[in-house]
Amino acid sequence: MRIKTVQDRRIQKTHKLLREALVSLIAEKPYDSIVVKEILDRANVGRSTFYMHFRDKDDLLISGIHEMLGPVPSPTRMYAEKWQDRLLFFSLPVFLHHYGHAHAWGDRIGARGRAILHEHLRRALAEAISVVVRQEPRTLRKLSRQIPADLLADFVASSFVLVLNWWLDRGMPQPPKEINDTFYKLISPALVAVWE
Fold it and tell me: In the chain, what is the greatest distance between 2 CA atoms, to the nearest angstrom?
């Protein structure tokens, strides 16, 4: 058991080093121009180690998205919250994350880099939202008669990314809590129509 724990810690440390290297490179140059070799040099990680864990730099970026989102809330925690908060558990943390990093990055990630990042973010969010919906069997039965759960998940995720892009394109004029409240106001009518 001790060997497994040491290996897990080693893997976590390697992933952290690679993600930090990618983030620091994004702060210096456009995402499109970053190559895996630069990430390896910055992280001081070997090529074979990188490819043991990730297919390419996009895959590394996706792993950072999943880490940022964290685990989907457990059903026990979820039932203590309002249904809307359960479904949109990701929104404020993602706004806070972007607010904390975007000032350092500026526009260096570039339009294509952001498009890649946000498409991966949209997919990861849709998956996470689907998990939340499936954890509520009564809701899922009701939804399946009206709107497919995967369509609802895609709609919420796409709407979130739209708001996130609007906010970033304008230089984050509101603080994260305020733009999160705006997102809730925009998405709430659709959720209420589906849920109630």
Answer: 53
Q: How far apart are CA 10 and CA 6, in angstroms?
A: 6
Q: pLDDT by residue (tens digit) across 25-78?
A: 877 887 888 999 999 999 999 999 999 999 999 889 888 887 877 666 555 555
What per-residue string of b and e applies to 30-69 under the rule 16 or more CB within 10 Å gives b? ebeebebebbbebbebeeebbeeebeebeebbbbbbeebb
Q: Residue 65 domain-assigned?
A: no
| 32 shares its domain with 95 | no
Whether residue 40 sits in one domain with residue 77: no
Residue 71 has phi, psi (to 5 degrees) of: -70, 150
Domain hosting 188: range is: 70-195
Q: Is residue 99 part of a domain?
A: yes
Asked if 63 and 19 touch (Cβ cutoff 8 Å), the reply is yes
Half-sphere exposure of 10 (CA within 13 A, CB side): 10
What are the tokens at 26? 């994004």
Number of domains in the chain: 2
Q: Using 50, 70 and 90 to split pLDDT, how confident is the model at 122?
A: very high
pLDDT at residue 189, as a whole number: 92
Question: Has residue 63 been placed in a domain?
Answer: no
Residues 4-29: pLDDT tens digits? Answer: 565 688 888 999 999 889 878 877 88
Which of 36, 57, 78 marks a domain boundary? 57
